[in-house]
Amino acid sequence: MSVFRDILRSWKAPRTIVRGLLAQGQREDRAIAYLMIGCLLIFIAQLPRLARTAHLEDIGLDRLVAYEFLAWLIVWPLAFYGLAALSHLAAKLLGGRGDWFSARLALFWALLAATPAALLYGLTTGLIGPGPQAALTGSIWLLGLAWIWISGLIEAETQEAAL
């Protein structure tokens, strides 16, 4: 199935999608692609907000974009690797049977699957600015990310670790 359809289906049945992704075998290249594409799309989602900030505060847009690019394409991917490792360790303490890869895949896929809401949030903050609308769309994004990630992690940790 296409990635786009899987993203849409992840909002309804994330465990099914993660189960299918895990059935494809340990493909680290695919997992890092999900992570990097998700981070790139979130970076793109930040551009309207950055343009608004640069205009209203008379700051150079190029500098804001450069910092945001560095954060989303260098720093955040490393942080997500650490977060995936911590989530796997926490799952192990709770009796999880998955492996490191399955925990990474669950988080990286959730990040990619939640990007439509991130793009909506970026448009909202760029066009309307801070306020209840931005808070609502930001909440939808974060709750969607948490829902897809936790559901996917449960699925990943209930499967036996591949040897």
Walkthrough of the structure:
Helix 5 runs antiparallel to helix 7. The longest helix is centred in the middle third of the chain and has 33 residues. By secondary structure, the chain is mainly alpha-helical. The chain is elongated and about 55 Å long.
Strand segment count: 0
**Helix-strand category:** mainly alpha
Report helical residue fraction. over 70%
Q: Evaluate the radius of gyration.
A: 17 Å
Major beta-sheet overview: none
Q: How far do the termini sit from each other?
A: 26 Å
Q: Tell me the strand percentage band.
A: under 5%
Work out the helix count: 7
Write down the overall geometry: elongated
> Which regions contain 5 or more consecutive residues with pLDDT less than 50?
none
Name some characteristics of this structure.
163 residues; mainly alpha; 83% helix; elongated
How are the secondary structure elements laid out?
Elements: H1 3-10, H2 14-23, H3 28-57, H4 61-93, H5 100-113, H6 115-127, H7 132-158
Summed up:
With 163 residues, the protein is mainly alpha-helical. Helix content is 83%, strand content 0%. The model has no long low-confidence stretch (mean pLDDT 92).
